[in-house]
Amino acid sequence: MTDGTVFGSYLYRLRIERGRETVSDFLRDRTIPFTANYYRDVEAGRKVLSVEAAVTLHDALGVDGPETAEYFWHYFHDVLPPEIHQALFGRRVRVTEGTLAQINDRRSRDGELHRRALALARYAREFVADEAITRSFQDDFDLLPVMTYVYMVERAAEAEVVRVCEQIGVAYGSRVRGFLAGVAEVVEEDGKRWFARRAPVLRMPRNETGVALKDRFALHETALSVDRPAAGEMFPPGGTFRHSAMVAVPESALPRIQERLADLVTEVEVAADASGQLDNPACAPYFFAVVFSGRPEYDGRGAG
């Protein structure tokens, strides 16, 4: 779970105070202006609502009376500059006496369940490559960026695929069309050809062949990344953010590190997919890899 937003924390508190352990239970019999998964993103702080959506959600949740002022105090805290928010709304925030520790404890437990649910959601929306597709990836390894593009935009016009081929130096023709036919539906509409992905996520099979292909892909993309200019604190599309370290980590810290990594991977792979990817003008393609590799051979403490 992310650190969240002030409005997300308010929604979480509202749900708990109304005795609802789960978002599904909280939203039952309510008509909200977006999906339940999107609401989970708002509550977790990964999405910020428009003013119109915030007003519609206010009505759908049955917020009224003094709660209305609180609702919009928290909402505008996240969308207005601090000085303007303070001038309009003041500093006061209500915290129910005696419940804050309980709410934080419940949120901690809820966070673990939330991460699991998001991770499972990724697998519920995936297309698993079979042996024939995996072999085609091995044989036509240079075409993987074309497949990646189709899966980032949901469906791509033939002209877009031609453009991607030009940018990576590949000739568009029967080889590309045959390659995409294995991982996408070929659709003819109004005299145009489209390639539509089979699911939001394409995953390699969890076998020796699939793992070998993913390793080859990671090595290839890492080589491309380290050849590009190193970025600073930001991640510009044309540059590369790099960090590597050899560190000593106590075993007691590993579960906490694993939880943070699970949050990171879930945020990148699930929340990013829900954002519309390249259909969203604010999105840009990135290569993402995380490697933790033990090095016990570097430990000389047992030497006499």
Description:
The protein is mostly helical. It has 13 helices and five strands. The strands form two sheets. A three-stranded antiparallel sheet has the order 2-4-3. 16% of the residues are buried.
The total of helices stands at: 13
Strand content: 5-15%
- Can you write the helix and strand succession as a string? HHHHHHHEHHEHHEEEHH
Please, what is the average pLDDT? 80
The radius of gyration is: 24 Å
Summary, kept brief:
The protein is mainly α. It is built from 13 helices and five strands.
Blueprint of the fold:
Blueprint: H1 6-17, H2 23-27, H3 36-44, H4 51-60, H5 66-79, H6 82-89, H7 100-124, E1 126-128, H8 131-139, H9 144-153, E2 155-157, H10 158-168, H11 174-181, E3 184-189, E4 192-197, E5 201-203, H12 208-226, H13 254-274
Parallel strand pairs: 1-5
Antiparallel strand pairs: 2-4, 3-4
Helix pairs in contact: 1-5, 7-13, 9-10
List its traits.
mainly alpha, 3-stranded antiparallel sheet, two-stranded parallel sheet, 304 residues, 13 helices, globular
